[in-house]
Each structure stands twice: as C-alpha cells, then as structure tokens.
Amino acid sequence: MSPERDAAPARLPREPLSARRRLAAFLLARLGWKVDVTWPDAPRVVVIVYPHTSNWDFFLGYLARRAAGLPAAWVGKHTIFRWPVGGLLRRMGGIPVDRARAGGLVEALLREFERRPTMCLALAPEGTRTRLDHLKSGFYRLALAARVPVGLAFLDYRERLVAIHTWLDLTGDQEVDLGRIRQAYAGKIGRRPEQASEIRFRPEHPAPGAR
Asked: What residues does each domain of the chain span?
C-alpha cells in the first residue's frame, strides 16, 4: 500500500459551503427539485447514475452535485479537453481519458484511484440515453479492482428528487450485487421511463473478478 493511500482520510470530504453551492441549491429549489445525499464512510467511491434517459439529467445532476458539496469527477474523451475549454472542464471535475491507449478505460481510472487520497467518480452505466438490454460493466470492474463502495444515485422525475441513499460494498457475485442494485432502483422514474435500460450485464462478457 502506497503512502498516499495510508494517509487517506476516513471519509470523502465535503466541498466547503460557497456561493456556487448556494446558487445551485437555489436553482434546484426554483425548479422544484430536492437533493438528498447520504454521505459515504469511505475516502474513495464510485457513483453510478441510473436511469439516464434525458439530456436534462446532466444539468440537474450537476446542480445537485454542487448543492450537496459532493466532489464528484467524471470521465470525458481526451479530445474535448483541449484549449480553450480544457482547463474549465478539468475544474468542473472532468478526467480526460484516451480510450485508444493500451490498458483500457478501467485500468486508466484505476490508476487515478491509486494516486489520489480521495476520489468520487460518477459514471452512467447505460452509456447512452437509448434503451439497452444491459448495463456496461466498467463501473463494477473498477469498484472491485479499487476495492471501493458503489453509490447508487438517481434522478426520480416523479418525486423530483436527486439522491444517493444506498452505498454498496460489492461481493464479487454478480447475481447478488445486481439483485441489490435492482432493488435499490425499483420505483425510480426517469424523464422517459421507457428508455431505462435493463439492470444486467451481457452474459457473454462477465465482469472480471466475479465469481
């Protein structure tokens, strides 16, 4: 274990209250939305956002992340991080990733977890707003490899609520873990419910590390 990991705090730090946090909370309230985040008891976490069925999800999710003070990072293709917007995107929590480089996306993100004393990485496991019959397993493989809990974030358009109520320590048994994820997301309604993907992985491509 590296010195950086030994020195990691016991919990993920909350961003200090600021004018930006107050503005984000104000805008959400004006839109009629609420935020409710149960804070994780860990310094490094993966957060998945489901269901993802609308372009509004990113806007509302970003406001909620600001209002809650959650220091969430996100992944973007490295080519969008060029001048003149690259610095701004990094300050917004963006992590540039070149998916064509050897090692793959999961390995690149794992290196980020290993070098940072604290980290919250938000991912949309559907990867698209179009309905699929499965989720991408990258978040699962990453959380197992990094040995971090997974937060189950949702935007419930019926309740007008952005929240994280559940943090899972993965067992490595896909059926058990996916069952718990399905249970946590039961009844959560996206803006276009018919576009929500099935909560399962491709059976022909099981996530490494599962047993």
From this structure: 32-51+62-195
